[in-house]
Design goal:
The chain is of the alpha/beta class. The chain contains 10 helices and 11 strands. It has an 11-stranded mixed beta sheet. Strand 8 and strand 9 form a beta hairpin. Helix 2 runs parallel beside helix 3, helix 3 packs parallel to helix 4 and helix 4 runs parallel beside helix 6. S-adenosylmethionine binds next to strand 3 and strand 5.
Length: 311
């Protein structure tokens, strides 16, 4: 990688003082020095930046974070100005797509400021795509703003359509708010891909209803294998199920036809007939996709990682 031999912590606030133009200047020099081409040692063209804008979330999904999670103090997060400085540097070095994520991006205070600022880059033709991964709970409020910023499609995480199971998996989430958010986002013209994490014994029975729901509302569906991410999440080992096993009910009911569709992400696609649904599978555990990974991640505190799952 371009920074072989260096820690992934290239220029965090732990190295450079906060609110300092010198910090920003140093950043740009270092980015220029190390990331001039954004082509890594494996020939992968890094043109996709995922920005985690907050570590906070209004849900506590069992596979994602512990029930009693402590969060970073607000002062440790990159400010929106700092994020925009980094974004501009990355754009000049080949980033064409940005995804906002978290935590839950829509719970960060005044997130519309960042969304609007990034939208200007879409309007100026500096970015091909601006998008977001959200739990959907605040979409009703934010959908018009996302569309105004030039977002055309977003990912919404949704693991079941059963309100009780949803509350259990998300530890308190309100399914109704998410479904309303999806409906409002669709009404504003946003395309939506549902991300559903496969959880053994938790949502296997939710797959067929989810496929029907997605087909009915014109949503894509992507299934994700549970990954060993995050600290203090105890349920994961028991929750793992390969997608090969998880999709058995779909194979029994529908024809799954390999699709040539490609997205900027790691999913492989199938067309489900006669349902007419596009199904994506993300299988980090059973078939990794490192060879064509094209992304870099910026954390809430200003660290960069190539991969969240592996060193
Ligand atoms: N809060 C937003 C959301 O719910 O989409 C964005 C952040 S969330 C961490 C991003 C995605 O990661 C969600 O689709 C979530 O289901 C998925 N995710 C979280 N922990 C995971 C794990 N251990 N294995 C697989 N996917 C996971």
């Amino acid at each position: 990688m371009l920074w072989n031999g260096h820690s992934p912590l290239l220029y965090s606030k732990e190295i450079f003082p906060k609110h300092s133009h010198i910090w920003i200047q140093l950043c740009s020099v270092r980015i220029y020095a190390y990331i001039a081409k954004m082509i890594d040692g494996f020939g992968r063209n890094i043109d996709y930046l995922r920005i985690s804008v907050t570590d906070r979330c209004n849900f506590r999904c069992t596979y994602c974070m512990p029930e009693h999670q402590s969060f970073l103090p607000h002062r440790d997060l990159l400010t929106y100005d700092e994020i925009m400085v980094l974004v501009e540097r990355f754009i000049t070095h080949g980033i064409r797509k940005i995804r906002l994520t978290g935590g839950e991006p829509l719970v960060r205070r005044d997130i519309h400021i960042l969304i609007d600022a990034l939208g200007q880059h879409v309007r100026d033709g500096n970015l091909d795509e601006l998008t977001m991964t959200t739990n959907g709970s605040r979409l009703e409020q934010f959908a018009p703003r996302l569309v105004a910023a030039g977002m055309r499609r977003i990912n919404v995480s949704l693991d079941t359509l059963d309100a009780e199971a949803f509350r259990r998996i998300s530890r308190g989430g309100d399914l109704g708010a998410v479904l309303t958010g999806i409906q409002v986002a669709r009404a504003h013209g946003l395309d939506i891909k549902i991300n559903m994490v496969a959880l053994r014994g938790e949502n296997e029975d939710a797959l067929l209803p989810m496929a029907d729901f997605c087909a009915e509302h014109g949503l894509d569906l992507t299934l994700i294998e549970t990954m060993p991410l995050g600290a203090g999440v105890s349920e994961r080992a028991e929750s793992y199920i390969s997608l090969e096993d998880f999709i058995e009910p779909l194979r029994n009911r529908y024809r799954l036809i390999t699709s040539a569709h490609k997205s900027a992400g790691p999913a492989r696609y199938w067309q489900m007939e006669p349902l007419g649904l596009r199904l994506g599978l993300i299988t980090p555990m059973s078939h990794n996709f490192c060879d064509h990974c094209n992304r870099i991640r910026l954390t809430t505190v200003g660290k960069f990682y190539m991969c969240l799952g592996s060193e």
